[in-house]
Amino acid sequence: MTYRAGRHFLQIPGPTNVPDRVLRAMDMPTIDHRGPDFQAMAKRVLTGIRRVFKTTNPVVIYPGSGTGAWEAALVNTLSPGDLVLMYESGHFASLWKKLAERLGLRTEFIAGDWRHGADAAAIGERLKADAAHEIKAVCVVHNETSTGCVSPISDIRKAIDAAGHPALFLVDTISSLASIDYRHDEWGVDVTVAGSQKGLMLPPGLSFNALSDKAIAAQAGAKMPRSYWAWDEMLAMNPNGFFPSTPATNLLYGLDAALEMLDEEGLENVFARHQRHAAATRAAVEAWGLEVLCADPAQHSGALTAVLMPDGKGADALRKTILENFDMSLGAGLSKLADRIFRIGHLGDYNDLTLVGTLGGVEMGLKLAGVKHRSGGVDAAMAILAAAAPAEARQAA
Ligand code: PLP
């Protein structure tokens, strides 16, 4: 491989760029995970992570990808053959459904058009019709990374309550945790699923389940086979700062540093930073004469923006042009959106100049690849950024 000067722009919607401070924190000797130094760090991290989920309940941390935490949420709370209601928000909701079926659960999908988040009213109607309470869990993806649409979790909670339905509520926040406002306790979520590689600014390799009392109680009746993903031993050992199997020691050092950084900036400021960058990105897309995939402005994601290609396809050729010329990776369209969209990640460790550089790369790429568009996207984004410059925004907060 030939050396390419300058920093690679990793602007996919996760994994995100890992800040130097996190890299430095991980660049340490791996210590005895049954010793006192590890114990002190693990206790700090297991407590600190609760603030990010906005919960006072335990958060289980696995060495594993987000997919593992999806599985953990299901096997700890359900029994073979249980019916699970899911909402087709996009590619990741579809993958979670496939995983549930492979585990031996029955699933029902409320159809979606991949341009909206989950529909709280439709979920509520389906639950009202389930007088026998056959549905045991409702599964929703908060930020659908394949589309850039956000599902209204609080409204879905209200719809479940209004239907008087006892189903558990399981939510995937893999691309929203620490990027978009999320409140595990306040929104009455039973299991929140998350991963390390997006808003938490870590490399891939850790995944999380935040629990409710109801989810913890559900273990007793849940008959799905489980061992590695079982919460019981984690919950027994974690309060002491230990884990039932070898934890990902160095990733936990990184998490310790990332939690410190999120605390220093303040979670609400992190959310506001991403919303501002999302608004500037949408202004650029509009100025280019292109269309944002997410069709409901109230559901636009702060974490990423998916952009439709003007002629319906050719997104992969555009991404290739941008990678080869400007050393920037953009997110691909997934499954039925393949080649039709490209996705701009603006989550994680990201500032105004990262955004201007990203959008500059896209605008130059559109021109080079011969994609029909108007110029002026970067200017439009800069106008949004200048209207509320970061130092002023910080003072106002
Ligand atoms: N859910 C969402 C919303 C995601 O964005 C992803 C990955 O990008 C996953 C689930 C799967 O997580 P992982 O690839 O870490 O297993």
UniProtKB/TrEMBL annotation:
Entry's Gene Ontology BP terms: glycine biosynthetic process, by transamination of glyoxylate
Catalytic function, reaction form: glyoxylate + L-serine = 3-hydroxypyruvate + glycine
EC number: 2.6.1.45
Cofactor needs: pyridoxal 5'-phosphate
Protein name according to UniProt: Serine--glyoxylate aminotransferase
Molecular functions (GO terms): alanine-glyoxylate transaminase activity; L-serine-glyoxylate transaminase activity; L-serine-pyruvate transaminase activity
Ranges that cross the membrane: none
Pathway: One-carbon metabolism; formaldehyde assimilation via serine pathway
Keywords carried by this UniProt record: Aminotransferase, Pyridoxal phosphate, Pyruvate, Transferase
Enzyme class: transferase
Tree of life domain: Bacteria
PTM-bearing positions, type N6-(pyridoxal phosphate)lysine: 198
One Pfam family per UniProt: Aminotran_5
Binding site for substrate: 343
The keyword Acetylation appears for this protein: no
Aminotransferase class V domain segment(s): 11-317
Sequence similarity: Belongs to the class-V pyridoxal-phosphate-dependent aminotransferase family.
Leader peptide range in chain numbering: none
